[in-house]
Structures are given as structure tokens and as C-alpha cells.
Specification:
binds zinc ion, flat, 12 helices, alpha/beta, 5-stranded mixed beta barrel, binds guanosine-5'-diphosphate, 17 strands, 380 residues, 29% helix
Length: 380
């Protein structure tokens, strides 16, 4: 059932080592009857030189992805038995998947788990998957589709993917209380720049200031092509426009504490704030890793992506070498400096500093750059 023959599609054969312990864990699990089908996928299997500790299998599928999104094997499965779904959250061995008309609690097919280990990928919230229903509300994930974008972070030298296939990031800040920190917003913008995710700056609490006072800083971001919105969760100003922006899309919400993220969600849909609070409480209990993300369906379409980790601070890692390229306004000048490894701080004949002097780069943005550069230097 697994190999689609005669469809003219060329499938790669991929040879992987499987550690014995994963095979054992597969047998212990419930959906054993379905695991048997996996043998159809196995074109070749043999005991390697290391005895029964490892064995090699050739599986049929496409190897896709890269270091950024994680390598994935897209297994060749019989789609007629499957439903397409979206991973809302992962809780240990159980994954919650949303299909067009219902929610399933899913186990993950053993072979996929082995592949995940070998290729350093796991099922994460946001993944688009194919599931095989086993009963009314239970199913098995048989395939993970290629990821379009990921949010990841490096923890103890290992890159961890937190969530995939997010469309946009709402970078929330407040016009006052706490005071607007443009450099902090730049940091969020820079960390999103490497991804496929579109950042949207949401300046909340505009009821507390004179909107005209915000124009200079908003102007710089707008001129760089960033979408900037002024909103007030309190008065409702800008909320219907924001509601249109999140409709049908998957948005991650980020920004420092106290800027009004929950209030904005509450203004968008009362359901959303309640449900994000539940996510926080669950993660505080420490039952699951606090870094896992949850997709919260927006009534009418789309999702809010919530993770306590991302909510507090940006987790996208940007290395020192990447910082200059992530500043849209600095990027055009970096190749014209005298020194190829110019840090654009103290060097002579630096085109970036010249551009700042000529007013082509905003001074505040340049200071943001220097701050991020020096901080990332300390980190390395
Ligand atoms: P979060 O930590 O980012 O989720 O922020 P909250 O939503 O908990 O809001 C923090 C505080 O700011 C609360 O006391 C809210 O009442 C207040 N707040 C939120 N939005 C607004 C707004 O648009 N205007 C004003 N004046 N206060 C707001
Ligand atoms: Zn330079």
C-alpha cells in the first residue's frame, strides 16, 4: 500500500540507520497493528556490523529541507486513507491535530519517529501532516509535509524548532507604560528577517499619547517596508483592521510583558485571551516543556501561535555575522566598506558610517545595529 507504482513519480530511496531502542519503543505502543504496514515501506533491512544495536533500512520518499527548516523525509504513503491536518500542539507522545471538521488526538507512526531522530526533526506545532484516522477522535500521523518557515532557537548547542509554517509575527509594543523602546522593536524585526515570516509592528496604548509624536519612529520603519499599526486595546482603535490582518493567517504574537498582548487578543476575540491564559498556566505547572508552541484557532479562520517562551522575548538566534545583513537599511552599503570584515563601528573608510553621516541611514537604527552587534559578539 505504501509504494505508489506506475505513477511516473521518481521516489528517492533513503538509507538510514535506526537504533534498536526506537524499534522497541514502537512495539510497546498502542497502534501496533498499523506499524505492521510499515514493512511495506522497507525495501531492504539488515543487521549492520554493530550487531543488533543499529540496523539499516531503505525507505522510500523524498528527502527535503535544509539546516534551517530541518531535514525531512516525505514518506510515500497511500493518501486515499488519509486526511490532511494541522498540528495544534504536541504533548509528549500525543499530538493534537486539527482537520477541516474536527480535532484528533494522534500518535505518531513509529517509522516517522525514527526518521525524526536520525534527521534531527520532530513533529512541531504548525506542521502540516497526513493522518490516518483510527477511531472517532484518534488517529496516527503518517507523514509530515515540508515546512515553509520555522521559528527555532538554539539551546545547549542543539537547534530546536519551536513552530513551523507561521505567516506573520505581530511585534507588540506600547506607546507608553512601558515606554516605547524602538531599539527593542528593531531586535524583533531583525530576528524575523531571516525567516519567511512577515513582521507587523503593533504599537498599542496609543490612547496614552499624541499619535503625531509617534510619526518620526513609525516613518523610519514604514520607509523600510515594515507594516506598522497603531492600536488601542482599551478604546478599540485599530482593532478591526488588525482583525482583518490576522483573519485566515497564522500569527505569532511577541513583545515584552505589559505591552498589552493579552488585551489585544481579548479585543480581537474574547476566546483568544482566555485560551492563551490556559496555555500559560499549563506551562507554569511545568508538565510540558515551556518552549512548546500552541496554535489557537481564531473563530472564522487562522491561528494565533502562542508560546510563553516567544511571548516574553525573541528566540530567533542571529549570529554576529548575520546582524548587518538583517538590517534592511544597512544591507545595501556593507559591500562597499574598505575592509571586507568591517564591523561598521571604528573602521576607516566605512560606507555604512558614511551613509549615517549623509543621512541615508537613520542614526537611531545605526545605534540599534551597534547594540545588537556588540551583544551578539559577547554571546559568541
Ligand atoms: P501583556 O503582558 O503584554 O499580555 O499585557 P496585558 O494585556 O496584560 O496588559 C498590561 C496592562 O496594560 C494592563 O493593565 C492593561 O489593562 C493595560 N492595557 C492594555 N492595552 C491597553 C491600551 O490600549 N491602553 C491602555 N491605556 N492600557 C492598556
Ligand atoms: Zn563598514
Amino acid at each position: 500500500m505504501s509504494k505508489r507504482k506506475g505513477k511516473g513519480q521518481k521516489k528517492k530511496k533513503i538509507r538510514l540507520e535506526f537504533r534498536k531502542k526506537y524499534d522497541q519503543s514502537v512495539r510497546r505502543k498502542d497502534f501496533t497493528h498499523q506499524e505492521e504496514h510499515e514493512d511495506h515501506l522497507v525495501a531492504e533491512q539488515r543487521i549492520s556490523g554493530k550487531g543488533d544495536l543499529t540496523r539499516k533500512r531503505t525507505v522510500v520518499g523524498d528527502l527535503v529541507g535544509d539546516e534551517e527548516t530541518g531535514f525531512q523525509v516525505i514518506l510515500d504513503v497511500d493518501l486515499s486513507e488519509c486526511l490532511a491536518g494541522r498540528v495544534l500542539s504536541v504533548h509528549g507522545l500525543t499530538t493534537i491535530v486539527e482537520t477541516d471538521d474536527q480535532i484528533y488526538e494522534c500518535a505518531t507512526r513509529g517509522l516517522l519517529k525514527s526518521l525524526a531522530t536520525e534527521l534531527q526533526h520532530v513533529i512541531v506545532a504548525g506542521d502540516r501532516v497526513m493522518i490516518r484516522p483510527a477511531s472517532d477522535n484518534q488517529a496516527t500521523i503518517v507523514r509530515v509535509e515540508p515546512r515553509k518557515s520555522v521559528i527555532s532557537r538554539t539551546s545547549r548547542g542543539r537547534r530546536q524548532i519551536l513552530v513551523s509554517n507561521v505567516d506573520q509575527a505581530l511585534v507588540v509594543c506600547s506607546a507608553a507604560e512601558p515606554v516605547l523602546k524602538p531599539n527593542l522593536i528593531d531586535r524583533y524585526l531583525i530576528s524575523v528577517e531571516r525567516t519567511e515570516i512577515k513582521p507587523i509592528v503593533c504599537i498599542n496604548k496609543v490612547d496614552l499619547v499624541e499619535p503625531a509624536d509617534l510619526q518620526p519612529v513609525i516613518g523610519v520603519w514604514s520607509s523600510l517596508g515594515y507594516e506598522v499599526m497603531m492600536v488601542s486595546a482599551k478604546t478599540g482603535f485599530g482593532i478591526s483592521r488588525l482583525r482583518r490582518l490576522v483573519h485566515g493567517r497564522d500569527s505569532v504574537v511577541t513583545g515584552q510583558s505589559g505591552v498589552g498582548k493579552s488585551s489585544i487578543l481579548n479585543a480581537l476575540h474574547p476566546d483568544l485571551a482566555l485560551r492563551t491564559r490556559a496555555v500559560s498556566q499549563e506551562s507554569q505547572k511545568g508538565r510540558h516543556t515551556t518552549t512548546t508552541a500552541v496554535l489557537i484557532p481564531i473563530p472564522g479562520g487562522g491561528h494565533i501561535v502562542d508560546t510563553p517562551g516567544i511571548r516574553q522575548f525573541q528566540l530567533w538566534d542571529v549570529t554576529r555575522e548575520e546582524v548587518e545583513g538583517c538590517f534592511r537599511d544597512i544591507r545595501p552599503f556593507i559591500n562597499h566598506c574598505r575592509f571586507p570584515d568591517c564591523s561598521h563601528r571604528h573602521e576607516q573608510q566605512c560606507s555604512v558610517k558614511d551613509a549615517v553621516a549623509d543621512g541615508k541611514i537613520d542614526v537611531r537604527r545605526y545605534e540599534s545595529y551597534v547594540g545588537m552587534y556588540e551583544e551578539s559578539q559577547r554571546g559568541t
